[in-house]
Every structure is written in C-alpha cells, then in structure tokens.
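Chains adopt folds. We examine one example:
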Amino acid sequence: MSVSTAASAWRDSLQGSWSRLRGLLGRSEENASAVPVRDWVNTGSGKPTAVAGFDMALVWVVVCLLALGLVMVYSASVALPDNPKFAKYSATYFLNRQAMFIGVSFVAALVTLQIPIGVWEKWAPWLFAASLAMLIVVLVPFIGKGVNGARRWVPLGIMNFQPSELAKLAMAMYAASYMVRKMDVKENFFKAVWPMAVALMVIGVLLLAEPDMGAFMVIAAVALAILFLGGVNGRMFFLSVAVLVGAFVLMIVFSEFRRQRIFAYLDPWNPEYAQGKAYQLTHSLIAFGRGELFGQGLGSSIEKLHYLPEAHTDFLLAVIGEELGFVAVVGVIVAFFWLTRRIFVIGRQAIALDRVFAGLMSQGIGIWFGGQSFINMGVNLGVLPTKGLTLPLLSYGGSGILMNLVALAIVLRVDQENRQLMRGGRA
C-alpha cells in the first residue's frame, strides 16, 4: 500500500470517528434540554464539581421571603403594646415569637426532608383523616380557641395550631394519592369525581363551621386543580367547578355578613361601609397610596399605628407597600410568581419520570402557595373581597410558617429524588 493511500484511509477513519462523536454529543444535548435541571455546581476554585442535591435557588428565595417577613412583622407590630389589648406585650414580643416559629419550622423541615416520598404516598389517606379529626376537635368547646368570633386554633403550649393549615397539605397529598389510585377510572364520574366531591364537602362543612371560608376556597382550588391535572374528563371538571362556584354564591346570598362584605368591597369609600366592613380595605389602600414608588422608609408607616387592624398578619403587604413602596410590592409578587412556577416545574419533572403522585402533590402545593398569596395580595390591593388569609412565609403565625416550610421541604425532597433518578440512581 502506498503512503498516500494509507494517509487517505487514516483521514477517513478519523472523520468517521469525529462524526460519531458529534452525534453522541448532539443526542446528549437534546436529552439535557428535554429535562432542564442544573445538576452540577462549579466551585470555581479548581476543585472537582459537586452534585447539587436540590434546587438552591428555591431555597434562597424562601430564605429571603422569611427574612423580609421577620423584619416587616417587627415593623408592623412594634407599636401594638400601646393598645390596651396588647398592653402586657413587649415591643419585640411578635418579633421573638416569629423568630421562634421560624426556628421550630426549620427543624421540622429538615426532618421532613429525610422522609421518602413513597412514605407520604402510603400515609396520605391517614394524614387526611387526621386533618379531619383536627378540624372536628377545634370545634369542641373548651378545646378550640376562639378569636374575633372565629374558632380556628388548638392551643399547644408554645403555639396555637390552626388545623386548616394542615388540611391544605393533607388535601394536596390525598388528592394526588386518590388520582393515582383512580387513574384507570378517571373518565367515570361516580368512581372518579364523586368520592372526592364528598370528601371536599365534608371538609367544607367543618371549615365553614369555624368559620374559615378563605381556607375552604384554597383547599377547594387545590383539590380541583389536582383533578384537572390528573386527567379527569373535561366536562366532569367544569361541572364540578360550576357546582362549587354555585355553592359559594349561595353561601354569600344566604349570609348577611358575607353580603355586607361584598357590598363594602364594591363601594369601600361609601360612608356606610368606610367605618364598618370596609374599614380594613380603605386603610390598606391609604397605606399603598402613601408608599408611592419607594415608600416612606422602613419603620415609618402611619397605618400600623392602630389604624390598620391585623397589620402584622392579613395586611402585612399593605405595611410593606407603605414603608418600602411599589418597588418592594412588585418584588414580593415576582418572588411568589417565581416560587409557584418553580414548584410546578419540579412537579412536571416528577410526572415525566413516571412519579405521578409526587408530581401531582407538588403541583397541588404550588396551587396552594400561588392561590393563597394571590388572594391575600388581592384583598390588600382591593381586587378581591376581604378574607382572613395570611401571606405565606411572610405574615405572623406559627402554624402557617410551620406548614409552609414542611410543604416546601416535601417539594425539595421531590426535586432531590428527581435528580437521583436522572443520574441513574434510585429515588
């Protein structure tokens, strides 16, 4: 064989090998883009890269929201001891309590992160039953604690636990577990939709007895969303939505105080409502108006000085708007939008990996966070009628912070198991 012939054969062999290598790299890039997960962290110091166990961006967004909430709870509550109702409390009482709630909830979240999703799937029906039992217990005289005419809390020593917060997580788990078990009959109304409708009706009756219509709205949204995402027949889904909306309308029509809230929402500046049912709404709108673009400055709110009731709980966003301005309010809205979207992405990845329970549960938690934050923001801004719902991760409250962080720990566990599967391991 001549030298030129050998060189030509060697060149052809190299070109073929290079073509095959490019093909393999191309397929790898396609697979990577199909499941967009950043799974490696570059240390930037010449050391080998390390595997990221879960979504650190989600963790940092949650930490930032908790930190902002801690600061704003202190700012919104620092003047409360001037009120005779809170005369026995120190100026830092709510700050210290909120810091304690965050600490306890953080420990609970770390413990929750160690529990495999398969365990939650197995125990989902029992957790739902436990939440129903707690909703019954809170209605028992001398056990449930009443505040402002509502009986929603069970005293547990260091904190008052609100069973409706547990019910939100329990419904997300139970509905996801239910859809997995009913996947083969999801087109049949009486086998797929009717049992869930009965469960939702029972939990609705218990919540309305407290009363806590806001929590019922969030739980109903979680249940219906999981049914829809689980593939229930479209006609059955829209029929269920129509029945639920009709039920809410009837509740408003046959309840005097709910009707008055709707009228006050429609015309808050009417003298008949401004000092009554629309009192909180009008002062919330005044707070946003005073805040303008960059706010009056941290600690400079006037509305928190006994003008705006529940400023450290339901109307914390109004204090943020007054002290930190429009820019901070937009930042909070964007943070919750990103958080909700990221939870949905994690759920979609789980479903793509054939982990239907984990995916539907995560998306149900996303509906919970997105729906509750939307309602709270809408109430503060006058877009929705006044409801007693806190802003997740920000508002003062032990059971709210506890269940928020536990739910997010479960989502992080789903993400962690997703990443293990995509690396070829086991969840």
